[in-house]
Design goal:
Number of strands: 0
Order of helices and strands: HHHH
Shape: elongated
Helix content: over 70%
Number of helices: 4
Distance between the termini: 81 Å
Radius of gyration: 29 Å
């Protein structure tokens, strides 16, 4: 059995939705030659998204665990003085 015959037999076994998914995946891996410019745009968009994600990751910083009850008590002390409303 030739390679093309094996490919045809596999494709024949796929349902309509699976075949659409296969075509989408295959076109991402091997874009048609007339769509190379479009593929470049998609690549540029993906690179832009990755760069944005990296900027977002770098913007994240460590936030220490807070004791909410202590924070609330300190805030009440600041705002109301010694009149704690527990």
């Amino acid at each position: 059995m030739s390679t093309k015959e094996m490919a045809y037999s596999i494709i024949d076994q796929l349902g309509e939705e699976e075949l659409q998914g296969f075509i989408t995946l295959f076109r991402r891996l091997y874009p048609p030659k007339e769509n190379l410019e479009n593929g470049k745009q998609e690549h540029d968009e993906m690179a832009e998204r990755r760069a944005a994600f990296e900027r977002m990751k770098n913007a994240c910083r460590y936030i220490p665990d807070l004791d909410e009850k202590q924070e609330l008590a300190e805030y009440r002390e600041e705002k109301y003085g010694n009149e704690s409303a527990d």
